[in-house]
Amino acid sequence: MPEPQIPDEYLGEYAHILEEVAATGRRLTRDELDARRALGREAADAGFQLRALIGLHLAATRTAWPRATAAHPESTDCVLAAVEQAVDAFAEGFERAQRLTVRREEAARREFIDDLLYGRSDLGRLAERATRFGLRLSRAHAVAVATGPEAYTETDAVPRMVEAALLARFDGRKILLTTKDGRLVCIAPGAQPDVLRYFAKQAHAATDGGMVAVGRPHRGPGGVVQSYDEALDALDLADRMDLEDPVLYAADLLVYPVLTRDRQAMADLVRSELGPLQKARGGAEPLLKTLAAYFDAGCVAAETARRLALSVRALTYRLERIHQLTGSDPSDPMHRYTLQTAVIGARLLDWPAKEL
After folding, report:
1. In angstroms, what is the C-alpha Rg of the chain?
2. Where are the alpha helices (DSSP H) in 64-170?
3. N vs C: which end of the chain shows fewer Cβ within 10 Å?
């Protein structure tokens, strides 16, 4: 599309200034420089491009070149110096206005993201503001959150790297990438799971092996914060359960909120099933880790022993000791489910480090 025509009003007294400079050899006054800066700010606020505005000044310089310079060649340097002064002041005002606009845009974007992820704003108003940032909150969205070895802000290299990769792959998609509390956050349409899978891949690589959690898709303005909370809960769960998968999906972890919905019942189960392990030499922690490794290894003794750096004989002794103390045999399918549920509960409740 052709560039819009720029009104001559953004030149101000430019031609008149050049005539006076050619006649007197003076430099621009402070008031004239301030006027040029003000015109630059107005032009930036009007949305014109700096390149086109500089072109307008150069064209005006050619058109209004003072005739006095032909009779007095020495005045040419003065006029050229005045052109430099006038254009520089104009560009300074333009750039100041742009920086202020950028700061305002950044503040508005940050406020929107905070309101979106905390659900603090009126949902109808939030949906209206979302269109400005490329989101249509009437549809379902899902949120992915990535953590790394350090806290990130939007201006850091890692978020910019991930954003560049996403834009190169999914140009035109309605995606919002930001940071929150030092983590990378990606919001994408729920019907496009490939976006968040690719984000997870890029974020995992860019953060040197950081973990990524993906919430389930939910509809409406409140759906974004719900998916965001699910992703955060998945990251917290991974920390407490020592989950090692680089990418976690909240949809795959729904059993854990179910298990902890009745906290008191879970605490009673842990005390009843695993409390006797505290009588063992060294406390409950070594035997609890043995049970966790045994269940994680699919109840295969050889694999469990390898993971714990034990001999199979030593592992067998530990499992027998657990049977003696708790009355439940980890190798018995009838006892295994109860024991494994109690082990999961102990991890979720941080037992025995914390009293139940």
Report:
1. 33
2. 68-71, 75-118, 123-132, 157-169
3. N
